[in-house]
């Protein structure tokens, strides 16, 4: 096992040297990351293919495009993000300097997940570097090819002491979490999120937890079903359903259930061809354990589409379940696979109640031609984020904060929100030593007159 | 679980949606304002009984500052509640992208004893403004104020949505077993750890307003009289029981010598020749705190003050000179009317001294040379910073108030309190039409589609031409 104390100690000493603070240094490191992504594109795509069977253009658009965009945004905006923000003053402070200064926190820990293994360590890393911190990156061991590649590449392009990569599984992560960090950003399950926060509590370390849940998708009968179902199909089955903001299950009225199934079925053919197994664009389940778990959810369910599986290649066909009971196993946990249950509800009120009886999800989706209905669903529910009339897309708007609420997480990042997450906003008031007469109002004695004023 | 019933009652009120309309929030906030106006005398009396808080101080911190926060909130609430629209890229021009401020649900506010009204009321203002229900747990140590809050608050606020829980450590521990949607805690770092650990079980986000030893560097180039006054004011306010008080002084031996008569002068100006008889000087809140503070008097040498009276829990405004880093007064947050002075050779040594210790809630620096003030600011880290004065940075509602590292996480005051108690929800409301624009993202994936996607989604560096 790597010596965690040494690695974190080195990062802390490097941070204390102050070299990560000048904006020029940070931009230089971000430029190096940009070069890394451009020069090693082939290797990154190969690792993603090996880990998740992600095809080239797919992997590029989901994992590399976003990273390049985030890098360019950070390099462009850093001077304005990092500039001290003057604040509104009152009468007593009129002559003074009052502003909010953005300062690095120190040593940040980024723990990645296996489903989008490259972007989920890179995007937080970019924000942490931009904010002037030292960073320890711990990619998921489940996506082992990407983890190995990240461990190889980062030291080739970045300052080796300030930015370190730690590899390993549960024992290594547990050991790492005993060290003191100044912020921890964790992406993964709610169960492990609790463990991370409890470990952070020992050091009073602030955390950003990007967790999960069951993201509901309500389809109103007054909507363009063909378009809605195409968009849902795209978001549900990308990465073989292994997306934290995938629409987990559908809520709709019984009268449109079969039309929904038909439309999704037709779209699946459009996307993946007659034989899904042969499509280079359809992924695989990451490992045997998850394969078995997802297959187990199909027990006792009405399979309207799909259901085929092949253990050897961890293939599960795009599957739709109809008339699913809210009490069934598939409705208990986050599916994280290519299985789409449809639960029928009589009305939007019932859908809202159904959603509110459950833990707050990471994403919430609603499809309708009626603006009022959409406004109502948003207003009467809570979730990390929302996309109406589409899925996934709120996560690509650079200025929207991306994060959960309740069991789906706490804190947010992306773009400027990453910079703020990894910075300390320090209140600064600088006064003059003169003008003492102004202060006499506040000093004792004879202050009872002030009380009566 | 003795509080389960109460929490689920509040949760039912929360689910009913009654705390969400602007009118409801305004009505509750206005009721809080009436509480402060109607019960002003009772508040001054209770805090005087609890810690001999001088009426002027109590009025300033417990009434005036609270009313400021109320007014800032009432003046701005409808704006704060509005959806914040954000920039969109080319393909989303017909869509609506905004940040919605959602309440969390049922929040818990745990307040300490030193500013017992202010430290529950200002967070509560934000919690109500953001549309939440709240349970308030005042400190049992300031028992007269605790009783006042428990008896009176229910006459002003909606009892279905806001409740007060009283008690000590056992009660707070049981309370923390429940699931809350946000916990706001003001108190000591050790208890902060306990609160955060309890919150972790339910994945409850927290704001922790903690403490530490706030260093106060005084450079050799300064107006000694004014420095002494401002430092003495900040140190002896509330008999030193202030989380942002200057905890200890760092200066050269020459400055220590110059400061002493100036400090004596300031103390006499403020409290007269016998501070014990001044109505403007407070008392220590409890016997336990009194004993703890008395033990610190052995650090360094007593240069000013040092008198104590156990029956009254009185400790005179005291300055300790030549204190060593190993002395008792330098091992814990003082939180009393004792100012240790630690002698250092120069500013660099002072900065190293500060940086070798846990990050405090505030760093103070005094100098006529603004370059020195800025150096201390830039080379240290702390919750907040105030140059050439003490305490005042927290009276500006536009500045965030909070700690970093051991001194806390999160921030509040003004809009920051509203933001603390709101979930910022990223929302994208798309158009159902223009489906052809989405084609590049759908399988089958091709390089051509990728090219289209790249050109519509990427951010171009300034100076390169954009593809139409």
From TrEMBL, chain A:
It is found in: Endoplasmic reticulum membrane; Microsome membrane. Residues 23-50 form a coiled coil. One of its GO terms (biological process) is aldehyde metabolic process. CDD domains: ALDH_F3AB. Residues 3-425 form the Aldehyde dehydrogenase domain. One of its GO terms (molecular function) is 3-chloroallyl aldehyde dehydrogenase activity. SUPFAM superfamilies: ALDH-like. It is an enzyme of class 1 (oxidoreductase). This is Aldehyde dehydrogenase family 3 member A2. It comes from Bombycilla garrulus (Bohemian waxwing). The lineage of its organism: Eukaryota, Metazoa, Chordata, Craniata, Vertebrata.
Automatic annotation (TrEMBL), chain B:
GO terms for cellular component: cytoplasm. Belongs to the aldehyde dehydrogenase family. Pfam families: Aldedh (PF00171). It comes from the Eukaryota. The active site is at residues 209, 243. GO terms for biological process: aldehyde metabolic process. InterPro entries: Ald_DH/histidinol_DH (IPR016161), Ald_DH_C (IPR016163), Ald_DH_CS_CYS (IPR016160), Ald_DH_CS_GLU (IPR029510), Ald_DH_N (IPR016162), Aldehyde_DH_dom (IPR015590), Aldehyde_DH_NAD(P) (IPR012394). Residues 19-422 form the Aldehyde dehydrogenase domain. It comes from Bombycilla garrulus. The keyword Oxidoreductase applies. GO terms for molecular function: 3-chloroallyl aldehyde dehydrogenase activity; aldehyde dehydrogenase (NAD+) activity. This is AL3B1 dehydrogenase. Keywords: NAD, Oxidoreductase. The keyword NAD applies. The gene is Aldh3b1_0.
């Amino acid at each position: 096992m790597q010596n965690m104390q040494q690695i974190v100690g080195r990062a802390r000493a490097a941070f204390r040297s102050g070299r990560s603070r000048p904006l020029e240094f940070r931009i230089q490191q971000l430029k190096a990351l940009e070069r890394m992504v451009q020069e090693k594109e082939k290797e990154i795509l190969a690792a993603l293919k090996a880990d998740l069977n992600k095809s080239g253009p797919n992997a590029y658009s989901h994992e590399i495009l976003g990273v390049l965009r985030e890098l360019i945004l950070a390099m462009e905006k850093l001077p304005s993000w990092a500039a001290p923000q003057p604040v509104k003053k009152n009468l007593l402070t009129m002559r003074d300097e009052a502003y909010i200064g953005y300062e690095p926190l120190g040593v940040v820990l980024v723990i990645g997940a296996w489903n989008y293994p490259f972007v989920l360590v890179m995007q937080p890393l970019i924000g942490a570097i931009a904010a002037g911190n030292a960073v320890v990156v711990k990619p998921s061991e489940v996506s082992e090819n990407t983890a190995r590649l990240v461990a190889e590449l980062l030291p080739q392009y970045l300052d080796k002491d300030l930015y370190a990569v730690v590899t390993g599984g549960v024992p290594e992560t547990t050991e790492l979490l005993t060290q003191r960090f100044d912020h921890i950003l964790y992406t993964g399950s709610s169960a492990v999120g609790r463990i991370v926060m409890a470990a952070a509590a020992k050091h009073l370390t602030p955390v950003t937890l990007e967790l999960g849940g069951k993201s509901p998708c309500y389809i109103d009968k007054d909507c363009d079903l063909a378009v809605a179902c195409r968009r849902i199909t795209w978001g549900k089955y990308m990465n073989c359903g292994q997306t934290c903001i995938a629409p987990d299950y559908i809520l709709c009225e019984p009268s449109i259930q079969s039309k929904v199934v038909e439309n999704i079925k037709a779209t699946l053919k459009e996307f993946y061809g007659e034989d899904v197994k042969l499509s280079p664009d359809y992924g695989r389940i990451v490992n045997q354990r998850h394969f078995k778990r997802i297959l187990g959810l199909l027990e006792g369910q009405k399979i309207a589409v799909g259901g085929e599986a092949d253990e050897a290649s961890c293939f599960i066909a795009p599957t739709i379940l109809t008339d699913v009971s809210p009490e069934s196993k598939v409705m208990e946990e986050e599916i994280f696979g290519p299985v789409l249950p449809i639960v029928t509800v009589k009305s939007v009120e019932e859908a809202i109640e159904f959603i509110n009886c459950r833990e707050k999800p990471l994403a919430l989706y609603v499809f309708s031609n009626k603006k009022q209905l959409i406004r109502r669903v948003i207003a009467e529910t809570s979730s990390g984020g929302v996309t109406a009339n589409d899925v996934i897309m709120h996560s690509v708007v650079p200025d929207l904060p991306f994060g959960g609420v309740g069991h789906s997480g706490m804190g947010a990042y992306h773009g400027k929100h990453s910079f703020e997450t990894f910075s300390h906003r320090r209140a600064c008031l600088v006064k003059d030593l003169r003008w003492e007469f102004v202060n006499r109002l506040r000093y004792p004695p004879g202050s009872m007159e002030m009380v009566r004023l | 679980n003795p509080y389960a019933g109460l929490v689920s009652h509040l949760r039912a009120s929360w689910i009913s949606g009654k705390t969400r309309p602007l009118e409801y929030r305004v009505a509750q906030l206005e009721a809080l304002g009436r509480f402060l106006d109607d019960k002003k005398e009772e508040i001054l009396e209770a805090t005087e009984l609890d810690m001999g808080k001088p009426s002027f101080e109590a009025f300033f911190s417990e009434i005036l500052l609270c009313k400021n926060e109320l007014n800032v909130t009432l003046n701005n609430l409808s704006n704060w509640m509005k959806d914040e629209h954000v920039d969109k890229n080319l393909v989303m021009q017909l869509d609506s992208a905004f940040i919605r401020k959602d309440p969390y649900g049922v929040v818990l506010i745990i307040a300490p004893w030193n500013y017992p009204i202010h430290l529950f009321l200002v967070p509560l203002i934000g919690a109500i403004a953001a549309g939440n229900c709240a349970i308030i747990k005042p400190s049992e140590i300031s028992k007269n104020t605790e009783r006042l809050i428990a008896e009176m608050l229910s006459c002003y606020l909606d009892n279905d949505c806001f409740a007060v829980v009283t008690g000590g450590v056992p009660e707070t521990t049981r309370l923390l077993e429940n699931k809350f949607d946000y916990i706001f805690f003001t108190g000591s770092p050790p208890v902060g750890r306990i609160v955060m650990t309890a919150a972790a079980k339910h994945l409850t986000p927290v704001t922790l307003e903690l403490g530490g030893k706030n260093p106060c560097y005084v450079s050799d180039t300064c107006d000694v009289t004014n420095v002494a006054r401002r430092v003495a004011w900040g140190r002896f306010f509330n008999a030193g029981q202030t989380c942002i008080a200057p905890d200890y002084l760092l200066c050269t031996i020459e400055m220590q010598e110059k400061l002493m008569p100036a400090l004596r002068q300031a103390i006499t100006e403020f409290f007269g020749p016998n501070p014990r008889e001044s109505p403007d000087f407070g008392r220590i809140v409890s016997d336990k705190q009194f004993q703890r503070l008395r033990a610190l008097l052995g650090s360094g040498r007593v240069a000013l003050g040092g008198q104590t009276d156990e029956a009254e829990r009185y400790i005179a405004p005291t300055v300790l000179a030549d204190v060593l880093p190993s002395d008792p007064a330098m091992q814990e947050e003082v939180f009393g009317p004792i100012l240790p002075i630690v002698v250092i050779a120069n500013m660099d040594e002072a900065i190293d001294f500060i940086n070798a210790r846990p990050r405090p809630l505030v760093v103070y620096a005094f100098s006529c040379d603004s370059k020195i003030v800025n150096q201390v600011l830039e080379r240290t880290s702390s919750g907040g910073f105030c140059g050439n004065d003490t305490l005042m940075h927290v009276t500006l509602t536009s500045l965030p108030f909070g700690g970093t590292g051991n001194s806390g996480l999160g921030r509040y005051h003004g809009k920051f309190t509203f933001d603390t108690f709101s979930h910022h929800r990223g929302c994208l409301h798309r158009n159902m039409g223009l489906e052809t624009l989405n084609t590049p993202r759908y399988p089958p994936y091709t390089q051509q589609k990728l090219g289209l996607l790249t050109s519509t989604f990427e951010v171009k560096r300034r100076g390169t031409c954009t593809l139409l």
